[in-house]
Design goal:
It contains 7 helices and 7 strands; from the N terminus they run H-E-E-H-H-H-E-E-E-H-E-H-E-H. The chain has helices at about 25, 70-75, 85-90, 95-110, 150-165, 175-190, 220-230, and strands at about 35, 45-50, 125-130, 135, 140, 170-175, 195-200. Helix 6 (about 175-190) links the parallel strand 6 (about 170-175) and strand 7 (about 195-200). Helix 4 crosses helix 7.
C-alpha cells in the first residue's frame, strides 16, 4: 500500500494547480496499482480504469468524503479512515468482481500462448477514476449522482498525469460513466491521445447482465485485448 514516502516521483506533482500538495500526496492510498509486467514485451501496456470507491454513511463522522471542497482542499481534514485504507487500495487482490476481468485476460493470454504472472494485476495498471468515494443512494452504488465539477476536474487531471507518466498503449474503462466524463474532460481541455486506444466495457459484476451480453462486457473486453493488447 502506498504512503507519502513511496509515491512514485512521476506522480508526486500531479494536480498541484487544484490540490495544493498534489493529488497523490494528499491521497497516497489511491495511487495506481502498477504491475511489474506492465512493461512486458509479450503485450502492450494496458491501463484498466474502474469508477470509484464506496464509503457507507456511517463513515461520515470519520471522513469529509461528502464535503467535496474539504475533500480536495481542506486543511487538517479526515480523509480516508484507517479501516478503509486496505479497501481503497487499487491492489484489489482476490476480488470477485474484478476476477471477471482477470479471467478474461488469462483466457486471451493462454490462447496466444503467452506466459504471464498468476497474479494478473502484475500485467497491467489498475486505477479508480474518481478520487472521492461514492455513497449508496436508493440501494444503488454509483458516483454519477455525487459528482461535482471539482470531481470531474481533479479526476481528469489525475488520469492525464498517469497517462503522461506511464504511456499506456491501451486504456479500458470498466465504467461507461467514467469513460464519458474523461472524454468530456479531454474535449474541454482540447487534449488528444491519438496513439492510445481508449474504450470502455460495462462493469464486470457477477450479477450485472449487461456485462455478460455479447458486445457489451466480457466479449467486448476480450475482443479489445486480442486486437490491441496482444502483439
Amino acid at each position: 500500500m502506498a504512503d507519502s514516502n513511496n509515491i512514485p516521483d512521476l506522480l508526486s506533482s500531479i494536480g498541484k494547480n487544484i490540490v495544493s500538495e498534489g493529488v497523490f500526496e494528499r491521497f497516497p492510498e489511491l495511487v495506481p496499482a502498477i504491475g511489474f509486467n506492465y512493461w512486458s514485451k509479450n503485450h502492450s501496456k494496458l491501463l484498466l480504469v474502474a469508477e470509484s470507491n464506496y464509503f457507507s454513511d456511517d463513515l461520515e463522522n470519520k471522513s469529509v468524503f461528502k464535503d467535496f471542497e474539504n475533500w480536495y482542499k481542506g486543511e487538517n481534514c479526515s480523509l480516508i479512515p484507517e479501516k478503509k485504507k486496505k479497501d481503497v487500495s487499487n491492489w484489489k487482490g482476490d476480488y470477485p468482481t474484478f476476477n471477471n476481468l482477470f479471467n478474461s485476460m488469462k483466457t486471451v493470454l493462454n490462447e496466444a500462448h503467452i506466459e504471464f504472472d498468476n497474479y494478473l494485476f502484475q500485467e497491467t495498471i489498475f486505477y479508480n477514476y474518481f478520487l472521492r468515494p461514492a455513497t449508496k443512494k436508493n440501494g444503488k452504488i454509483g458516483f454519477k449522482k455525487d459528482c461535482k465539477p471539482i470531481d470531474k476536474e481533479v479526476s481528469g487531471l489525475a488520469l492525464c498525469g498517469i497517462i503522461k507518466a506511464y504511456s499506456p498503449n491501451l486504456i479500458i474503462f470498466t465504467s461507461k460513466y467514467a469513460w464519458e466524463e474523461f472524454c468530456k474532460y479531454c474535449q474541454r481541455e482540447k487534449l488528444k491521445f491519438d496513439t492510445i486506444k481508449i474504450d470502455f466495457v460495462y462493469h464486470p459484476s457477477r450479477h450485472l447482465s449487461w456485462y455478460h451480453r455479447y458486445g457489451f462486457g466480457k466479449q467486448k473486453f476480450e475482443d479489445i485485448l486480442k486486437k490491441y493488447w496482444i502483439y
